[in-house]
Design a protein that fits this description.
Length: 159
């Protein structure tokens, strides 16, 4: 699965490679303020290295010289099925774009490339979860056409 898409937008979208993980870790740390190298290595082992038609870990990288960044963004998702009676659907569980490279269509292209992969796997619905107070993600996903779905997330503190 060595797909590469030239989006003619100054960047490429492609499948993650082992050398990309240090850049994913760096981007995530810049955005969240938390270093999680063991987590990202585990995610790579499951979604990048194993690469199946049901799991997708895509990155956006600059197309040619002139960028200050080795990695512009990434998205990770998988086809999941039958939890609580849900038909198979594509779940996006990670998306990040370099803050200084936002508003260039990077997130949009990553989202669309993942949607295309989900469609190839035969699913017709995409889902994600967004924190209510995360306006950036909420506006992004709504801008991509996502709306409230048929499920409500519930939680409870554990004593």
């Amino acid at each position: 699965m060595a797909r590469v898409e030239n989006m003619d937008a100054g960047f490429l979208v492609r499948q993650v490679r082992p050398g990309d993980i240090r850049h994913v870790i760096g981007l995530d740390e810049r955005v969240t303020g938390l270093a999680k190298p063991a987590y990202w290595q585990e995610v790579f082992e499951r979604y990048g290295k194993a690469g199946t038609e049901d799991r997708h870990f895509l990155i956006a990288e600059p197309n040619g010289a002139g960028s200050d960044f080795a990695l512009l963004g990434f998205i990770i998702g998988e086809v999941r099925a039958w939890e609580f009676g849900s038909a198979p659907c594509g779940w996006v569980f990670a998306l990040s774009v370099e803050p200084k490279a936002r508003l260039q269509g990077i997130g949009h292209r990553l989202f669309r490339a993942t949607a295309a992969e989900f469609a190839k796997a035969g699913v017709k619905t995409m889902r994600t979860m967004v924190a209510r107070d995360n306006r950036l993600h909420l506006m992004f996903f709504r801008g991509e056409g996502m709306t409230a779905g048929p499920y409500i997330q519930l939680e409870r503190d554990i004593e």
